[in-house]
Structure formats: structure tokens, C-alpha cells
Recover the amino acids of this structure.
């Protein structure tokens, strides 16, 4: 037996990685080069659209003329495994997409991996919001699928940046990076420090929101708990009644940059997906990014409390 002084096998734990201006471009590059003739993709039924940004993961599907089907999700945006299983049993797909919404690992991810694998279909993990979840903890997120997609500009202070990581080399045909200088930028940031700050802000904000909710009501936390390995993109809450849009306007007018992901679903997700439409109508995403201090979190929640109280009084 001979053991070398250091590693020499270039294929050991090696993945193929491509860099783009956006994750959607990486997804389009994947779909354009997938082997086989099945041009149908299965997606979760919670995909948004906006006039400014389009529709992210759905845009390449539409642009390339693929057919899209959808499976249901629950109010935490986790996969409805029974509905996914039904869809896979009904027809073949060129790819199945699993979205880890807002950086939270889907609670059914391993079950999804096993189910999709049993149908010999490529699984694509959409981690547009989950770069730090996949790269800084012990989570299997990012390594369960054949391909993982990342939207780096949504997690780092850069104008553009997407990445596609291929865990399955057999899916690589003609893919090519279109932003080859991006790795140097991404590597210049301290990922663990950013992850720690985001988790700190999320957990502190959740604690303050729970205290606020016990006093005034009017909303619920979408995620009462956060897994130790998850690094959030935002802190999602569900606003009661029909006041979400008013809260959105009031918070942003006061300088607190909240968003509603995804307030408008793509037309392909019809009214039969009742849960998806309920979430779209009630969700509000509060920022917890690495630029924020604990004092910023306190100010955010305090003003949210002022706004939610005012809106609830108007509705009563």
C-alpha cells in the first residue's frame, strides 16, 4: 500500500461549477443542455412574477418553450410529498425543481430526493436564497440534487451573480460560464461571519415579533423555529386579514425595506392552488441581512408594531 503525502485525485469530491450574471441564466444553460427529449419540468406551485424582475426560475422554462407542471406546497412552503408523488406517477419529466424558500431547507428534501431519484429524473435544487445555508453549516442542502442553483447577488452586496453547481457530471454537455470573474469576488467575503449575522438578526427579530404578537396580534410567523443549519434570506410573516399591502406601503414609506415574496404568482398557477394564493396574499418578508445591527432589528420591529396596530384598528 502507498499513501501519498497529499491529495492527488482530481475527481475526489470534485464538482463542476459555472458562474453567470444570474441564477436564472444558469438554469437556462442547464435546460438547454439537458440530455433526453422530455421538455417538461415539474415546479413547486409558489413562483412569483414582477414587472421589474420577471419570474426567476420560470423565465427560462417559458423562454425555451418547455411545458411546466406544478406540485402543491403547504403554508410553510414545504413540499406536499403526496402531490409530488402523484405528479411523478402521471408523466415523465426532464427535470424536477425543489425550491428552498428564503434560505430555509425544505423539511421534506431527503424524501423528495429519494422520490425523484426513483423516477430517474434530474433534481434541481433552487437555492437562490440559500447560498449560506448550503455553504456554512452541516445541512445536506445543495448536495441532494443533481444540480444546485444560487443567486449570489441576493445574498452578497454585488449587482449581479449566479452559480450552478453540478453534483451530477452526466448532465454537463455544453454549459459554460458567462461571468468567470465572479469566484474571486465571492471568495473575498467571510461566509461564516455573514451567516452568523443573518441568523442572529433572524432569531432576535423572531423573539421581538413573538413578544409583539402576544400584545397586538394581527400576524403570525411563517417559521416559528429555524434549524441550526439554516441561514435565512428574510424573516417571513403572514399578515392577518387584508392589510398586507397597506403594511408594505407604510413600512417602506418609513424607510424600512420590506418585500412581499411572491405577492403576484405567475398566471400558470391557477386558483386551484389555494394554499399558494393564500400565502401570496398574506406574506411579508422582513430584512435580516448582514448590514443590520441589533438596534436596526429593534427599530424595524418597533415600527412594524406601530403599523400593524394602526392597520388592525382601521380594520376593526
Amino acid at each position: 500500500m502507498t499513501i501519498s503525502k497529499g491529495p492527488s485525485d482530481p475527481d475526489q469530491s470534485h464538482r463542476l461549477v459555472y458562474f453567470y450574471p444570474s441564477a436564472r441564466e444558469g438554469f437556462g444553460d442547464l435546460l438547454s443542455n439537458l440530455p433526453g427529449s422530455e421538455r417538461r419540468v415539474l415546479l413547486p406551485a409558489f413562483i412569483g412574477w414582477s414587472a421589474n424582475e420577471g419570474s426567476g426560475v420560470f423565465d427560462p422554462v417559458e423562454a425555451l418553450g418547455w411545458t411546466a407542471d406544478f406540485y402543491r406546497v403547504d403554508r410553510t412552503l414545504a413540499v406536499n410529498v403526496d402531490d409530488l408523488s402523484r405528479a411523478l406517477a402521471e408523466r415523465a419529466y426532464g427535470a424536477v425543481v425543489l425550491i428552498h424558500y428564503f434560505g430555509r431547507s425544505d423539511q421534506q428534501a431527503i424524501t423528495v430526493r429519494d422520490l425523484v431519484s426513483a423516477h430517474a429524473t434530474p433534481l434541481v435544487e433552487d437555492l437562490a436564497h440559500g447560498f449560506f445555508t448550503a455553504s456554512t453549516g452541516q445541512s445536506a442542502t445543495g448536495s441532494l440534487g443533481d444540480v444546485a442553483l444560487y443567486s449570489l447577488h441576493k445574498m452578497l452586496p454585488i449587482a449581479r451573480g449566479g452559480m450552478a453547481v453540478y453534483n451530477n457530471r452526466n448532465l454537463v454537455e455544453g454549459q459554460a460560464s458567462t461571468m468567470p470573474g465572479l469566484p474571486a469576488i465571492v471568495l473575498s467575503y467571510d461566509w461564516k461571519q455573514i451567516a452568523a449575522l443573518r441568523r442572529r438578526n433572524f432569531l432576535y427579530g423572531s423573539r421581538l415579533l413573538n413578544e409583539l404578537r402576544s400584545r397586538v396580534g394581527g400576524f403570525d410567523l411563517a417559521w416559528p423555529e429555524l434549524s441550526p443549519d439554516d441561514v435565512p434570506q428574510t424573516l417571513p410573516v403572514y399578515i392577518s386579514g387584508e392589510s398586507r399591502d397597506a403594511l408594505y406601503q407604510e413600512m417602506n414609506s418609513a424607510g424600512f425595506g420590506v418585500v412581499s415574496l411572491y405577492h403576484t404568482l405567475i398566471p400558470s398557477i391557477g386558483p386551484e392552488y389555494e394554499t399558494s394564493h393564500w400565502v401570496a396574499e398574506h406574506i411579508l418578508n422582513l430584512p435580516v441581512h448582514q448590514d443590520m445591527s441589533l438596534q436596526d432589528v429593534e427599530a424595524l420591529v418597533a415600527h412594524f408594531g406601530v403599523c400593524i396596530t394602526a392597520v388592525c384598528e382601521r380594520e376593526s
